[in-house]
Amino acid sequence: MTNLEKYQEVLKKHLGATEEELNDEKMVYNRYPKWDSVRHMSIVAELEEKFDISFETLDITSFNQYSAGIEILEKLGVSMQ
Amino acid sequence: MLFGIEKRPTDQRAFCSEDGTIVTYGALVELVRRFVKIKLKRALVFCLCENSPGAVTGYLGIMEAGCVPLLLDAKLKEEILDSLLKQYQPAYLWVPDNCEKEYILNSCPVLFQCFGYKLYQTEYAPYPMADNLALLLTTSGSTGSPKLVRLSRKNIIENGKAIVKYLQIDKEERAITSLPMQYTYGLSVIHSHLLAGGSVLLTKSSIVQQSFWNFFEKERATSLAGVPYTYELLKKIRFFERQSTHLHVLTQAGGGLSETLQKEIGEWAVKSQVRFYIMYGQTEATARMSYLPPEKCLDKPGSIGIPIPEGKFFIVDSEGKEIKQQGLIGELVYQGSNVSLGYAECRMDLQKQDERQGILETGDLARMDSEGYYYIVGRKSRFIKLFGSRISLDDCERLLKEKYPGTEIACISYQEKLIIFTTEETIVDKVYEYLTEHIQINTQSYSCILLDTIPISESGKIIYRELERYLSIT
Questions:
Q1: Backbone angles phi and psi of B122, in degrees to 5
Q2: Which InterPro entries match (chain A) (predicted)?
Q3: B19-34 tens-digit pLDDT
Q4: Which of A5, A26, B196, B295 could form a Cys-Cys staple with A21, CB 3.0–4.6 A?
Q5: Residue B454: closest CA among chain A residues belongs to which residue?
Q6: How close, in Å, is residue B325 to chain A by CA atoms?
Q7: Do A37 and B452 lie within an 8 Å CB cutoff?
C-alpha cells in the first residue's frame, strides 16, 4: 500500500468517507458532516502513529481539507508520490 | 433594553466576526429597535444559531420584541428540526441564508433580515405562554429530545450580573466564542460581556483550525472559555507551551477537568499571568452556580469552588434534609435567582409557571471541605453497586484517564456490570488489572470494549445513552 493509500484509509476509517469523496470539494473540515474536532484529533493521532511522525501545532490547525493533509505529510518527510 | 445595551457608548464594539463585520452598540441598538417595530405577536421563535452577528442580533431582537426564542444549532439534522417544529409549532423562524432548510421555508413570508439572516413567518399561529418565559434552551443539544429548559429574563440578567462580578468583566474585555451560542455556557459568555459593555469576537471556526487562531491574534482576544475537551485539545496543540500577551482570562466548565490537567493549566496560568477559573453550572441554573477563585486553583484540585455572588449551596441527604456536618456526601442543592422556571416537554408546558421557586436539585453528589469549598463526587445515578459497595463511574473514568493519559475512556453500568469503553487498543487487556488495585471487581463483573470513537456531544460531554444503546444492540 502506498503512503497516499494509507492516508486515504485513515480518512475513510474515521470519517466514513467513500473513494469519490476524497477531494477538496467534499473533504473540508467542518463542512464534511463528520469532520469535527473529535475526529480531527483521532485522524491526526493515527497518522502520527502510522507514519511515525509528530504534527506541530500549525500542522494540526492548518489541516483543513483533503489536500492539506497530503502537503503536511510531505512536509513531515512522508513521501506521497 | 436587555443588558442595558442602549446605555453604552454608541461607537463601542459589541461584536466583530471573522469575516470583518463590526457591530457597534449603536448599530446593535438600532437593529434591535427595528426588530421591535415589526410588532410581532408574542410567540415562540426557533432561532437557528451559529456564532455570527446575525444570530446574536436576531436573538436579542426577538427577546426585545417580547417573543421567546428557542436556540438550536443551525446544523441540526433535518429530521430532528422537523420533529421539534411539529412539537412546538413556532410562529416565526430566524434562519441563516446558508442554511439548507428550504423545504420548510419555501412558502413562508420574510418579515425582516440582517447580516445574512431572515425572519420567516410560519403557518403556525401564536399560542399562549407564561408571561415570565423569556428563553428556551435544549437539554441535550443534538439528540433531538423535546425536553427544554424554561428561563425568565430575571434568570438571564441575574446570572449575567453574578458572572460579570466574579470574573471582573469590564468594557475592555474581548471574549472569543470558542463554544456554540446555543449551548448555555457559550451563551453566558455573550450575555455577561454585553452586560459589562465589553465585546464578543464571533467565530464559527473551531480551536483546531488555524482560522480561529488568526482571528484570536488579530482581534487580541482577552478571554477564552472551554469545556474539559477544549482543554485537552489546547494541550494537544501545545497552547500551554506558549505565552499570549493579550489573553488574561481562561474559564472552564461543562464537566470536571482531570486533576493533572488542572494542575498543569493552573501552573501555566500563574506563570503567564492569566486568571484561570474553574466553574460549575447547569442549563437548569441558566449557566453558572459556582466558581473556584484563580488563586485557589492549585490548592483545591478537583473543587468546583464556592457559590457565585447571591447564590447558595446546600448538601442534602436522601430524605432531602440538610447535612450540616462537613465532609459528608449528599445531593447538591442550589438556591439563587438564576434557577430556571422548570422544564417543558411539549408546547402546553410553555404556559407553566415557576415550578422551582429558586431552588434546584442538581442531581450531582457533592461534599464541602472545612473552608467551604465544594467538590462534585459523581452523579446521583452514575454509580454501580459491585459486591455491596457503591462505586462511582466518574471516579473509575478519572482513575483510568489519569493512569493512561491521552486515552479516551468512558465507564457505564449495564446489567450490573461495569463496562469500560476505550479507543486505545493497547490498554484493553490492562485496565482490569489496574482497576483491581482500586476497586473490588472480578472478571465476571466487568468488560472492556474497544470503539473507534467515544460519542461526544457538542459541549464535549460523553453521551452515555449512545453507549448503552450500543450494548443493547450487540
A1: -95, 180
A2: ACP-like_sf
A3: 999 999 999 999 999 9
A4: A26
A5: A38
A6: 42
A7: no
pTM: 0.83
Domains in chain B (CATH in brackets) are 20-127 (3.40.50.980), 153-379 (3.40.50.12780), 383-473 (3.30.300.30)
Query: pLDDT digits over B182-235, tens only?
Result: 999 999 999 999 999 999 999 999 999 999 999 999 999 999 999 988 998 999
Q: How far off is chain B from A64, nearest CA to CA, in Å? A: 7
Side-chain half-sphere CA neighbours of B64 within 13 A: 23
Mutation target among A9, A40, A41, A59 for the B interface, most CBs of B within 10 A? A41
Q: Output the domain CATH number for residue A18.
A: 1.10.1200.10
User: CB distance B207–A37 less than 8 Å?
Assistant: yes
Q: Is A30 on the interface with B (CB under 8 A)?
A: yes
CB pairs under 8 A between A and B: 47
Inside any domain, residue A19: yes
pLDDT in tens, B255-298: 888 889 999 999 999 999 999 999 999 999 999 999 999 999 99
Hey, is the C-beta of A15 within 8 angstroms of any chain B C-beta?
no
Q: Would you say residue A71 lies in a domain?
A: no
How many structural domains does chain A have? 1
Which of B204, B208, B239 is nearest residue A37 as measured by Cβ atoms? B208
